[in-house]
């Protein structure tokens, strides 16, 4: 991730890639910045991301590249392709390392170097046996990879379903909070209205009492005049 310059990435060679992971490697895709007219990334779109972990440099101790695809199937195709390519590179590198230097064998009781071309006869049955062994290992690895791909798709579907339920719960919670806020506002308004009515009722009661006192006083004066 380049933080100094936006939308600018240094070239990344295959030899620098240490690990390839599906998803955002523990990061929340909704926190990723957007540019131009790009819409904010939803949590449900986490299955469309691919994370490349590159070797550290003197400038950056950790380098993570997040790639977004239009669909999870397109992401999975590149994921398996890159992993296969890196596996081939590692195998070729291992073969090169294993052939560095002069290997020695015993021929006719003498130690001979293989740095020069030697005509060595190997039984054909041993060659077929080695091929069958490698083929069995390859078929086993292929089956494991196919099963792993199926498991990955199933887990991603379950994760997307859980994220969908979580979003529904969040939306329901927001709606409930909104209703509760409206209810609280209405209760406050009714409380103020009730308080106003009580004060008006108290004023009317006081006025009624004053009128009654005034009426009693007028009746008393009238009786006094009659005598």
Layout of secondary structure:
Elements: E1 17-22, E2 49-54, E3 63-68, H1 72-98, E4 104-107, E5 110-113, H2 124-226
Antiparallel strand pairs: 1-2, 2-3, 4-5
Q: Describe it for me?
A:
The protein is mainly α and 227 residues long. It has helices spanning 72-98, 124-226, and strands spanning 17-22, 49-54, 63-68, 104-107, 110-113. The protein has a three-stranded antiparallel β-sheet, covered by helices on one side. A two-stranded antiparallel sheet has the order 4-5. A hairpin with a 2-residue loop joins strand 4 and strand 5. The radius of gyration is 41 Å and the shape is rod-shaped. The N and C termini lie far apart (109 Å).
Features:
227 residues; rod-shaped; mainly alpha; 3-stranded antiparallel sheet
- Quaternary state of this entry equals single chain
Please state the CA-atom Rg, rounded to the nearest Å: 41 Å
Q: Reading side by side through the largest sheet, how are the strands ordered? A: 1-2-3
- Ends apart, CA distance between termini: 109 Å
Structural class: mainly alpha
User: In one word, what is the shape?
Assistant: rod-shaped
Low-confidence stretches: 1-6, 97-108
Strand content: 5-15%
Helix content: 55-70%
Number of strands: 5
Query: What's the rounded overall pLDDT mean?
Result: 76
- The total count of helices amounts to 2
Helix and strand pattern? EEEHEEH
Largest sheet geometry: 3 strands, antiparallel
């Amino acid at each position: 991730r380049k933080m100094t310059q936006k939308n600018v990435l240094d070239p990344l060679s295959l030899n620098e890639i240490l690990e390839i992971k599906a998803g955002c490697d523990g990061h929340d895709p909704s926190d990723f910045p957007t540019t131009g007219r790009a819409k904010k990334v939803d949590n449900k779109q986490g299955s469309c991301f691919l994370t490349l972990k590159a070797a550290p440099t003197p400038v950056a101790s950790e380098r993570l590249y997040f790639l977004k695809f239009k669909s999870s199937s397109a992401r999975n195709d590149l994921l398996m392709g890159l992993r296969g390519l890196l596996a081939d590179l590692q195998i070729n590198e291992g073969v090169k390392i294993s052939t560095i230097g002069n290997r020695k064998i015993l021929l006719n009781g003498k130690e001979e170097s293989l740095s020069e071309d030697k005509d060595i006869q190997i039984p054909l049955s041993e060659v077929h046996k080695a091929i069958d062994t490698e083929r069995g290992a390859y078929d086993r690895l292929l089956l494991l990879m196919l099963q792993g791909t199926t498991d990955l798709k199933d887990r991603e579907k379950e994760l997307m379903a859980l994220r969908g339920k979580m979003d529904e719960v969040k939306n329901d919670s927001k709606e409930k909070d909104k209703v509760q806020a409206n209810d609280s506002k209405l209760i406050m308004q009714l409380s103020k209205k009730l308080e106003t009515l009580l004060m008006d009722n108290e004023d009317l009661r006081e006025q009624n009492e004053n009128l009654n006192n005034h009426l009693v006083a007028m009746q008393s004066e009238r009786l006094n005049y009659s005598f």
